[in-house]
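Model the whole thing, not chain by chain.
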Amino acid sequence: NAGVTQTPKFRVLKTGQSMTLLCAQDMNHEYMYWYRQDPGMGLRLIHYSVGEGTTAKGEVPDGYNVSRLKKQNFLLGLESAAPSQTSVYFCASTGTSGGAYYNEQFFGPGTRLTVL
Amino acid sequence: AQSVAQPEDQVNVAEGNPLTVKCTYSVSGNPYLFWYVQYPNRGLQFLLKYITGDNLVKGSYGFEAEFNKSQTSFHLKKPSALVSDSALYFCAVRPFPGNTPLVFGKGTRLSVIA
């Protein structure tokens, strides 16, 4: 199993450009999440999904959109990038076997995004 | 609001000495608590979790954590630190009940000095 994978690993954007980050998991997990990591801030939840076709806002959703058209994929979009969105983005997933609230989240390797 | 606090930004320990990384939580109801480790330029890796039962939880790489309900703490410990334990450590909580995402602390950087 590849686990959780993220594409791309690195990206540099100019202010106002758009892009989509792709997260894929091969563990048949129901729940998927997008976090951003900034120095001294820990991980902050952007959006999450509890199943195919459903999404919900997290702590810092502004400026981002998400879609979960397939169970294994969770896309994070930036419509008009801003320098404040410079960050490392992590995707994670959780299975529901035995109860989702008992289970740990599995993380991808991250995408380092710089907005100039 | 549900939250987790890691009061130390940095912990330094000599190799071979015991280490402790502190975590306190604030949730309503019984919490589910987790520890993760992040090595440079990597994603987070799960170390251990407390759901219920024995207050001392054993996890990966020789780490353990002690749940203390009266002090609302879940400190991470290891009897003998290794240089390879140097990393960023995150405590996280999932409030009970609910299928909610984990809430993370801000992280503690552990440096083990040879």
